[in-house]
Amino acid sequence: MPSTSVITAVYEITGDDPAARAGLVAVEQSHELPTELAPANAVRDSLAHVRSVEPRAGRPALATVDYPVDLAGGELGQLLVLLLGNVSLQDGVRLIDVELPAALAAALPGPRLGLAGVRARVGEPRGALLATALKPVGMTAEQLAALAFELAAGGLHVIKEDQGLADQPWAPFAERVPRIAEAVRKGGSGVYLPVVNGSAARFADQVRFARDAGADGVLVMPGIAGFGALAHAAEVFPGGIVLAHPSFLGGFTAAGSHGIAPDVLFGTLLRLAGADAGIFPSWGGRFSFTRDQCLAIADAARRPLHDVPAMLPAPGGGMTIERAPELLADYGPDTMFLIGGDLRRGDDPRRAAERLVAATR
Amino acid sequence: MPSTSVITAVYEITGDDPAARAGLVAVEQSHELPTELAPANAVRDSLAHVRSVEPRAGRPALATVDYPVDLAGGELGQLLVLLLGNVSLQDGVRLIDVELPAALAAALPGPRLGLAGVRARVGEPRGALLATALKPVGMTAEQLAALAFELAAGGLHVIKEDQGLADQPWAPFAERVPRIAEAVRKGGSGVYLPVVNGSAARFADQVRFARDAGADGVLVMPGIAGFGALAHAAEVFPGGIVLAHPSFLGGFTAAGSHGIAPDVLFGTLLRLAGADAGIFPSWGGRFSFTRDQCLAIADAARRPLHDVPAMLPAPGGGMTIERAPELLADYGPDTMFLIGGDLRRGDDPRRAAERLVAATR
Q1: Whole-angstrom distance between the N-terminal and C-terminal Cα of chain A?
Q2: B306 and which of A55, A168, B105, B323 could share a cystine (Cβ 3.0–4.6 Å)?
Q3: Cβ separation B138–A47 shorter than 8 A
Q4: Taking Cα atoms as reference points, which of A101, A98, A68 lies closest to residue A83?
Q5: Comparing B90 with A186, which gets the higher pLDDT?
């Protein structure tokens, strides 16, 4: 039974003396002072506690650390600081699991729409959701809108912008967003998610502009805009879909003895941060996650987690129409499949979209 | 001579065919579509170009890629997407150098105060700047204020909060910030920088509160709050010092064949993003950067970079009073030295601060 008063983190620890190292992690991530220097009268109920260290032959040891829930201050950002902030700068420690008390989970943003809400907004109650990206950068707003029309007419559920689009001269944000929103509306029943990558105050302005221009939500890059940007977008755009993009988050999930397991980052943490759907690089494409890692991300996005709504996993990255049936069988229909370049072979993106729709029926 | 029209990135590439891989990086980071699928009429001036690939015996190859400057759209966030966004999710590519045209550098935030402005605000025209952190979490606002008073009276220039402090029950933000600000003012001529880690809209509220409560700036964690948060804080708090903390940025700089070289991330990129001073883990403490890496960070923070003001490098992490003279000799006086736990050995933090001041005169 999960505790009501502690946040439990499990770390893989590489090195000679995992028990000693686990103790150092607990200190680094809470007091950041040698315990003997912590004022005894103040800190009793703020001390982290190493619950267990389990050595494993030929593999990193598993260390389980309990942090008093108050250390997170009920804030997502501080939870991230607590779980891995400073230790992210040290080698030999990798965060592989997190368990939160229900009250903290309820205090964090979580998805506003989540899997069920996205299905309702898209009008697809049961089947797999099909998505693609508008690209490449360098196309004009007119060209992007024409492409979006064809893709929507081909039956795709979600037409998002590529993360390479910004406020560039070829297709400025304020010009292209209303045009593409109109094209998608005319093309079919799909939704349109422009990418929002302005900094700070400009971020909220862009989300507001997208909302008023008839978009159906936004694509946000928490690795650039910050983890709080997901919930911020949902606040500014009530009812809008918030889709998370993994740009600039790869440092954490690279193979090795540091960072964060992909299912924790791209499943659990982005879900708690408020993504309705989360893109991650699927296996077999041009990125390096394994099949097991990808299915673990999907599971972390959807499995019961107190009262936090399920998030839609959105595998992408070098996926093809041909692989769609296999991927559908593996991930199941509660998934947003993101197919990019393969819809652009040949000159008829609408026909390619129709083939993708047919392949997943 | 740097080009006026391209952003130049240098990558270390590990693997069998670095030339082919460099070509894939250029595509991934710009069009994200096989070049033959990119609409020919639209994209000529948005194509990235591999300038050179230099194999090195027993070491990763060096690949130099030129990106048309317009791809960044004049935005810091998009520059980060461009330099490493998707490729951060792939192994075998590490960003080790960046060169920008002057016009783009001028469009990015950069430090508002920078090294010279922080010196002016602190009232220390030439000597090394000495800083420490208020910790551990678990102390009350009253205890933290009493400690801050002693440290300021001991002659420290900068008293910042630990990144482990948030809005927790022991010392809520709204209670502790005015108290500590007052204590530091009474204690000496040092400045006080509370940590701001609320998400999204709350971030700006906290910065505003800190400004109005008499703080001298804020500590910001761009790995959590986003890179745009540094400039956002400077906007909300004119004249306030913006100090960057590396929490949750470690995934990128871990040793290995991916991510970002520490001097690029903690020097160049944080400086462009608007940090007046940037904390990084120094060698010899409990983190893993080498002496050469740390001195390269300090150099990237201070060296000429078009008209971008110099940023103060702020080495920290397990540093001691005893090592201060050695570190001062290595880093030079244009440095903010962050000394933590070592000021707390014994019962007299004021005396310890005085010893630190004496050791660096």
Answers
A1: 41
A2: B105
A3: yes
A4: A98
A5: A186
Cβ pair A312, A115 in contact under 8 A = yes
Which residues are within 8 A (CB) of A236 and not within 5 positions of it... i.e. 6 or more apart?
A: A204, A207, A208, A211
The domain that holds A140 is classified in CATH as 3.20.20.110
B-chain residues within 8 Å CB-CB of A38? 136, 138
Tell me how far CA of residue B115 lies from CA of A34, B262, B319, in angstroms.
Answer: 32, 20, 21
Number of domains in chain B: 2
**Residue B290 covered by a domain:** yes
Is the full-model pTM beyond 0.90? yes
CATH number of the domain encompassing residue B67: 3.30.70.150
Domain check: are A247 and A183 in the same one?
Answer: yes
Same domain? For A99 and A135 the reply is no
Q: Which domain holds residue B101?
A: 6-107
By CA distance, what is B173's nearest residue in A?
A73
Least Cα separation, residue A43 to chain B (angstroms): 5
Assess if residue A261 is contained within a domain.
yes
Look at residue B294 and tell me if it is in a domain: yes
Q: Give the nearest chain B residue to A347 (CA atoms).
A: B37
To the nearest whole Å, the CA of B8 is away from the closest chain A CA by 17
How wide is the angle at C-alpha B135 spanned by C-alphas B130 and B137, nearest 5°? Answer: 155
CB contact under 8 A, B259 and A251: yes
Same domain, A190 and A94: no
Report yes or no on B223 lying in a domain. Answer: yes
Query: Which of B107, B133, B164 finishes a domain?
Result: B107
Q: Which one-letter amino acid corresponds to residue A302?
A: R
User: Could you tell me what percent of chain B has a pLDDT over 70?
Assistant: 96
The pLDDT > 70 percentage for chain A reads 96
What pLDDT band is residue A1 in, cutting at 50, 70 and 90? very low
Residues 6 or more apart in contact with residue B57 via CB below 8 angstroms: none
A61, A160, A357, B51 from B46: Cα distances, Å? 48, 20, 32, 15
Nearest to A267 by CA among A283, A256, A253, A287: A253
Last residue of a domain, one of B84, B107, B130: B107
Give A-chain residues touching B264 at CB under 8 angstroms: none
Within this chain, do residues A91 and A178 fall inside the same structural domain, yes or no?
Answer: no
Q: With contacts defined as CB-CB under 8 Å, which chain A residues touch B285?
A: none
* Min distance B113 CA to chain A CA atoms (Å): 19
Average pLDDT of B96-121?
Answer: 97
- Pair (A74, A124) in one structural domain: no
Q: Do residue A35 and residue A67 come from a single domain?
A: yes
At B143-180, the pLDDT tens digits run 999 999 999 999 999 999 999 999 999 999 999 999 99
Q: Which residues of B touch A29 (CB under 8 A)?
A: 164
- Chain B's closest residue to A43, CA to CA, is B138
Q: Which residue in B has a C-alpha nearest to residue A108's C-alpha?
A: B199
